[in-house]
Every structure is written in structure tokens, then in C-alpha cells.
Write a structure and sequence with these properties.
It is a single chain. This protein is an alpha+beta fold. The chain has one domain (2-114, 131-224). The chain is built from seven helices and eight strands. The chain has helices at 51-61, 69-74, 80-87, 91-107, 156-164, 194-200, 205-224, and strands at residues 2-8, 20-27, 36-41, 44-50, 128-132, 141-145, 169-175, 178-185. Strands 4-3-2-1-7-8-6-5 form an eight-stranded antiparallel β-sheet, with helices on both faces. A hairpin with an 8-residue loop joins strand 2 (20-27) and strand 3. Helix 1 packs across helix 4 (91-107) and helix 5 packs across helix 7. The longest helix is centred in the last third of the chain and has 20 residues, at 205-224. The radius of gyration is 18 Å and the shape is globular.
Length: 228
């Protein structure tokens, strides 16, 4: 099984910096929870964990402050160099790590051990929220996966632009022949203006597509909380 999260590691206003980065988990889930999983950054291994440790870490990362993520990984014996690199990473990059572990926990029970034909993530990775629950009063951060109705290929130019300015991230999940790919509105949602987006895309298509993503998100939000 591989779960991958891709996004731009920089805040888009920092000299319009754009550097795609990928974090992914790779391993085979079992009922015994005893197999090894590896956490990678751009194909560089960062740490090896048992499956039960991946689940534990997912629980701890949920709702934790972004500044504490590196310290949580250190509890599982990440080496000092990788610890320092994560500790000094931008909030956008830390958000990718959090999103990876939140997605792992969200999808874990959808991966059958006995009958692989039963796998179906259509209800997990499309038109759905993952809440970064912090067990305190106030707003909770969330990820929102775009619905199946969105034609990714037809809108790929607009999607790539939105990824470059941190408004979307990409998720890919593969498991024994099953492949899923989608995009999501990330935990951190930087504000951006129509004028700024039109400077990047004079056609206005990116801004129009972004508003479509927000429309789908708002509809799901209203239905989830029975507001209409």
C-alpha cells in the first residue's frame, strides 16, 4: 500500500516560490499490525514504523500544533538530521505530513486483508472531509476531497496552478492493483484574490475552477450539518 500527498512546500507569497514536494507512506497492512511501513520525502526514507505505530502516530498528529509534528516523529526515533529538517520546514510542508497521516487513518479500515476485491475508497477520498480534531473549542482545520463529478483531466492546467499556490494538494492511494487519485483543499487555506489569480492565469479559468471547488465544499458542508 502506498499513500502519497503532494503539494507546494512554500507559502505562495514568498517570492512566488514553487517547489512540489511529496510525502508518502509505503507498507502492507495486516490484521496483526506488525509489518513495517516507511515514511518517505521525495523518495528519501525518513523513518521506519510498525503498522501499529503508524496508527498511533496518526492519532497523536490529529489536532496537534504544527510546531509539534517533528517532536512527535522524534518519539519514534527519527534520526537527528531528518528531525531538524522537518523542525525547520514551513507550515505548508508540515501540513502535508499531517494530511498524510490523517489520510492513512481515514482509509485504513477500507483496506481488506482477506478479500482484496472488496476495496472501495470512493466514499473516503471523494466529496468528503477529514477533520483535524483538536478537542478544544473553536474552529477545527479540515481537508476536503473534491467530488467524483470534477473532471481532473479536463481541468489539469487549472488544478496545477491551484496546487502551485497552495489552494489544492494531490492525494494518491494504491493497494494491490487498486489506484485512486484526487485533489483536496488542504488544512491551511491561504487567502488569495481574484486579481492575483488572474495575473497567473489571464483566462480566468483557474479562478472559476477554484470557485467551483468551494461550491462543492459548501454544499457538502451544508448537507453534513443539515443546514439545507
Amino acid at each position: 500500500m502506498k499513500i502519497s500527498i503532494k503539494g507546494n512546500r512554500f507559502f505562495y507569497q514568498e517570492n512566488n516560490a514553487n517547489e512540489e514536494i511529496e510525502y508518502f507512506l509505503n507498507g502492507e497492512p495486516t490484521l496483526a499490525y506488525d509489518k513495517d511501513f516507511q515514511l518517505f520525502k521525495n523518495n528519501i526514507p525518513l523513518i521506519t514504523l510498525k503498522q501499529n505505530q503508524v496508527f498511533q502516530l496518526s492519532e497523536k498528529i490529529k489536532g496537534c500544533d504544527f510546531s509539534k509534528v517533528a517532536d512527535l516523529l522524534k518519539e519514534y526515533n527519527i534520526d537527528n538530521l531528518n528531525y531538524q529538517q522537518i523542525q525547520s520546514s514551513s507550515e505548508q510542508e508540515i501540513g502535508l505530513i499531517k494530511s498524510l497521516f490523517l489520510t492513512y487513518q481515514w482509509t485504513e479500515y477500507a483496506f481488506p486483508v482477506i478479500d482484496d476485491d472488496e476495496i472501495d475508497l470512493s466514499s473516503n477520498l471523494f466529496n468528503e472531509f477529514i477533520i483535524d480534531v483538536n478537542n478544544s473549542l473553536g474552529n477545527q482545520l479540515d481537508m476536503y476531497f473534491l467530488p467524483n463529478e470534477v473532471d481532473l483531466q479536463s481541468n489539469i492546467t487549472e488544478i496545477e496552478l491551484l496546487v502551485s499556490i497552495n489552494l489544492l494538494c494531490k492525494v494518491e492511494v494504491s493497494h494491490k492493483g487498486h489506484q485512486y487519485e484526487n485533489y483536496f483543499i488542504p488544512l491551511l487555506k491561504p487567502g488569495t484574490s481574484r486579481a492575483y489569480m488572474n495575473r497567473l492565469d489571464s483566462t480566468g479559468k483557474a479562478f472559476k475552477f477554484w470557485n467551483l471547488c468551494l461550491k462543492y465544499r459548501d454544499i457538502k458542508l451544508r448537507k453534513t450539518f443539515n443546514h439545507g
